[in-house]
Amino acid sequence: MDKYGVLISISVLLGTLARFYTLRVDYRQYPSYPHAYVTHLTLGFIAAALGGLALPALLEENYVAVTFLALAAQQFRDIRNIERQTLGEIEETELVPRGKAYIEGIAKLFEARNYLAMLTAFIASLTIHFLELIPGVLTGVVFILLMSLAMVGKRVRDIAVVEQVPITFNGKNIGIEDVIMMNVGEDEGLKNWKKHGLGLVIKPKDDDARATLANIGQRQAILHDAATQLGIELDVGIQQYSPLARLDLETGRVCMIIMTIEPDGEALIKAVNRVPVLESAKRKPLQSKAGKMASD
């Protein structure tokens, strides 16, 4: 298989670049740098190598080598389990937890990105073999860009309208409009909520969005991302300052209260708008006959 040296080298390089392109640390600080970077890039290289070697193995009628692709798929499923376990272990250290649905979404994403590396290498090797080196490289780059765009999911801004509203106080009760959020027993707690508290209403654009926002995992993800980006006045054992996101059962709106370090309503709206819609939280009742009838 020495005659396939250039084909394999370029396709593996492109596959590894695909994994590198999709590997970035944002406000969530996961994967961590540099240790998790090394892990994910190494796995991306292995995936790219498998994808790059598949075509030469087939051309040389070495079908035993191709069966390693099945083994790789099993290994990548194990990656999902490892990520799920890792995030689950550090969940106890979060003041505002991600929630199981958010963790599952992250784990699936890391698994899918290894498949992206494998597919990029395979598509590049296929193009290089039947065309030439330059078309193969261009095809690989275009495939990386297209697949990266395709893997970007919806955000809260795509399914709902987020508005800031004042927090209402009725005795010891804190609420938004007629939705009671919590009861605060201490005067100091009420004082801090009045001083630093922010209220939001997340209005679903349709019944599909209403069902999605009703998911507990989706609401927990919104709270976690907002707290992560803006900071939160909360510590262990101080439950009365915990952010909350409750449903208005009459309208399907999500009412949210949070006490950020800097009470900036515009920044909070921007943070909530950018929260990803979790794959496990998506609901589409309007695509069923019963759902359409109920929405009329």
Can you give a write-up of this model?
- With 296 residues, the chain is of the alpha+beta class.
- The chain has two domains: 2-150, no CATH class; 156-295.
- It is 57% helix and 12% strand.
- The chain is built from twelve helices and seven strands.
- The chain has helices spanning 5-21, 35-59, 63-66, 68-90, 100-130, 133-150, 156-159, 187-196, 207-213, 216-230, 265-273, 289-295, and strands at residues 160-165, 168-170, 173-176, 179-183, 197-204, 244-247, 254-259.
- The strands form two sheets. The chain has a four-stranded antiparallel sheet with strand order 1-5-7-6. The protein has a three-stranded antiparallel sheet with strand order 2-3-4, with no helix packed on it.
- Strand 6 (244-247) and strand 7 (254-259) form a beta hairpin.
- Helix 1 packs antiparallel against helix 2.
- The longest helix has 31 residues, at 100-130.
- The protein is elongated.
Quick rundown:
The protein is of the alpha+beta class and 296 residues long. It is 57% helix and 12% strand. The radius of gyration is 24 Å and the shape is elongated.
Question: Which helices and strands appear, and what pairs or packs with what?
Answer:
Layout: H1 5-21, H2 35-59, H3 63-66, H4 68-90, H5 100-130, H6 133-150, H7 156-159, E1 160-165, E2 168-170, E3 173-176, E4 179-183, H8 187-196, E5 197-204, H9 207-213, H10 216-230, E6 244-247, E7 254-259, H11 265-273, H12 289-295
Antiparallel strand pairs: 1-5, 2-3, 3-4, 5-7, 6-7
Helix pairs in contact: 1-2, 1-5, 1-6, 2-5, 4-5, 5-6, 10-11
